[in-house]
Amino acid sequence: MKRTKITLLDLVGIGIGQIIGSGVMILTGLAVGKTGHGVPLAFIVAGIIVAITNLCLATLGSAIPANGGMYTYVRDLIGKKTGFFYVALLAAGQLVLANYAIGFAEYLKELVPAINVTLVAAVMMTLVFIINLTGIKSAVRFQNLLVVILILSIALFIVLGLPKVGDFSPYFDMATIMPNGFSEFVAAIFLVRFSLVGAEYINEFGSDAENPGKNIPLAMIISTVVVSVVYLGVGFVATGVLPIEEVAFQTLGNVAHTIFSKPIYFFFMIGGAMFAVASSLNAVFAWAPKGLAVAVDDGWLPQFLAQENKTFGTPHYLLTIFYVIGMIPILTGGTLEIIAVLGNNIGLIFAALPIIAVMFLPSKNPEAYANAYFKLPRWAMSVLPIFCLIIFAGGFYSNVEFIGAFGMKVLFGYCVLVAVYAKVKEPHLNPTKGVER
């Protein structure tokens, strides 16, 4: 059946919805606790780091647009086994689906204390799963609706909150920017960085997008810049309206209570907090199966898993896999913090692989690099990825202590199992797929 192509505006909506999620609503308060009035500066630094990463990945998206983009980049530019390692970690990292669903339920509980968080989270996960089963365009329409309401509510937070920031001098004083020292300021940067990632997954829609070589990098850049500016405003309001001690390690609800009337407060909690989490949940279901579907086609997993629904053209088995992965932490009582940290550390591992692939693009596929609508100079294709990898390593290390020895052993064990499976399975793949390095 003929598929409707996704426009640039649709791609920007997906990018914004994927970036703006539970991160800004939960992590901002944690960052305030670590670095006080340094949060706006932390957002600026984090935005620069994320922008550099996206510049690298935008080059891949422009040069080689394809569904399953990240997986295919790693497979073709580094190697088949590494490609499977990437997609296996990506699948495991979608434990964060539970984080979005639980976050939605936790915010609803602030408004309706009697609800059952586990039940609401499970219902939300199921609802978004069903929406994505009905087709990519349905998911995009739902996403765009969420994003419009989300941006409006956060805009109200900034517009009504900024006039209540009476003193901007603390944002220029090192004593209030880094009240707990430089190390805690760096920790805050890593925290808020997690709230800015997401635009890179626009690459997964290469075959579904109109003019992908141009629109994919444009959508990545536009959505990242828009959200970075929005978050800067959130940072000023979050740290400037109330005393720092009343905001530290809290959600944005305290500040919202202060700056909003009751009706607008409810609109913010629903349209801002709850819709932010819902939009991230929806976006992950939309892009996550792309790479896994290509891996199935390559022969890494049974072919039936990539079968599509005849009515809607959606990969119902793959969507179900991610639905089950997301439901496991909900049904086993996982907490927001544990799920977020574990999912983020897994994400830092698999996110490093496409960055490494960037360095091989000019040599492994010089024609695609030369003809790309958007590309970096050759020197930047090495220097910028190395910078990103150092940042990723620092982010991973900052969470090792929280995960603990047992968690690290489980993560290491999973990586070993995936590597062994890839080594055994690789000789039996379709030889026409991928390029082994």
Strand content: under 5%
What's the level 1 CATH class?
A: Mainly Alpha
Number of discrete helical segments? 19
What share of the residues lie within helices?
over 70%
Give, in order, the helices and strands. HHHHHHHHHHHHHHHHHHH
Organism: Peptoniphilus equinus
Membrane topology: Multi-pass membrane protein
InterPro entries: AA/rel_permease1 (IPR002293), APC_superfamily (IPR050367)
Subcellular location: Cell membrane
Would you write up a description of this structure?
- With 437 residues, this protein is mostly helical.
- It has a single domain (8-428), classed as Amino acid/polyamine transporter I (Up-down Bundle).
- The chain has helices at residues 8-19, 22-35, 39-63, 69-77, 80-93, 96-111, 117-133, 136-161, 174-177, 182-193, 212-240, 244-247, 253-259, 262-287, 289-298, 316-332, 336-364, 366-371, 380-425.
- Helix 4 packs antiparallel against helix 5.
- It starts with 7 loop residues before the first helix and ends in a 12-residue tail after the last helix.
